[in-house]
Design goal:
7 strands, alpha/beta, Aminopeptidase, 34% helix
Length: 300
């Protein structure tokens, strides 16, 4: 499977002893991997809908900054430790500012609210041409990911990797999103919002059933504790049917793991309205615990 410019970036790391045609032992999907400002501006230039002024601010707040760098660092660590290993990283380059490639497009607004997630197609996308363009990109991404996963699973493990803002900021996703975010992140207001867990496993469904692969939670919790970090268990979001992550976990129970990492653990420094530098030392602090925990999922 080759990359699709502007849609999907594929990077594979092979250990020094891995066969050239060896399938991946781990696939890391980053459905919110469009983190460069250029990802936003390139697609915004193709749209005809009147976008809210300053929408790039929402892009920076809402994209999973640091997740691609963590995924690649993790891949390199795993293949260095086990030279026969192969890790493939799938990075979406379609900004969720316009359409979210981790959403079911047939889900209702009530579904998204129940899942505590933003919509699939954003409300400022108003023209039929834009809807058709974005749905086409979405379908290409989803089909391409399926083409990678179908032959790899369930032998391989699947990590669905996300990052989220440090605080749970309660604003409506509407045409006033930029003004609302600026007000929410005012210096005197931002500290009043609830602080999110440093790392959260998104593995419990609406009934409270835990779909986290066996052994991973305990290993990750122990590894993070050694690094001075904590692990939550579904404190932020449920594993909700309005997300494509839910479908992956249900399709391959015990083989798929969904995780959120707080962005201030990755960005150096954290700035909600800018493209952020990802600190190598911060990555190193997380990579070890994740690599150790994921070994419980990897094929022998």
């Amino acid at each position: 499977m080759s990359a699709l410019p502007g849609v999907l970036e594929i990077e594979t790391r092979r250990g020094s002893a891995a066969a050239a045609d060896a399938p991946p032992d781990l696939v890391v999907e980053i459905p919110h991997g469009a983190t460069a400002t250029a990802d936003f501006t390139a697609l915004a230039a193709q749209l005809t809908s009147p976008l809210p002024a300053g929408l790039v601010d929402f892009f920076h707040v809402n994209t999973d900054i640091g997740a691609p760098e963590l995924a690649l660092a993790l891949a390199e660590r795993l293949v260095a430790e086990a030279p026969t290993r192969v890790v493939t990283v799938l990075r979406c380059r379609i900004p969720r500012t316009f359409i979210d490639c981790n959403r079911r497009m047939d889900a209702s607004p009530e579904d998204f609210k129940a899942g505590k997630v933003t919509p699939g197609l954003m409300p400022w996308i108003t023209t039929p041409e834009d809807r058709a363009l974005l749905r086409g990109l979405y379908e290409r991404y989803v089909s391409a990911v399926d083409a990678v996963l179908a032959p790899a699973m369930p032998r391989a493990a699947l990590l669905l990797l996300h990052s989220y803002a440090p605080r749970e900021v309660g604003v409506e996703v509407d045409a006033d999103i930029v003004q609302s975010l600026r007000a929410a992140y005012a210096p005197e207001v931002e500290p009043t919002w609830p602080l999110r867990p440093e790392v959260d496993l998104i593995g419990r469904d609406l009934a409270g059933v835990d779909w986290t692969p066996r052994g991973v939670s305990a290993a990750l919790r122990a590894g993070l504790a050694e690094a001075g970090l904590t692990l939550a268990d579904g404190a932020t979001y449920p594993l909700h049917p309005s997300t494509l992550a839910h479908g992956h976990v249900m399709r391959w129970p015990g083989r798929a793991l969904c995780v959120e990492v707080r962005r201030d653990l990755l960005a150096d420094p954290f700035d909600p309205f800018a493209a952020m530098h990802i600190g190598p030392a911060k990555l190193a602090r997380l990579v070890g615990p994740f690599a150790t925990a994921l070994k419980a999922m990897l094929p022998p």
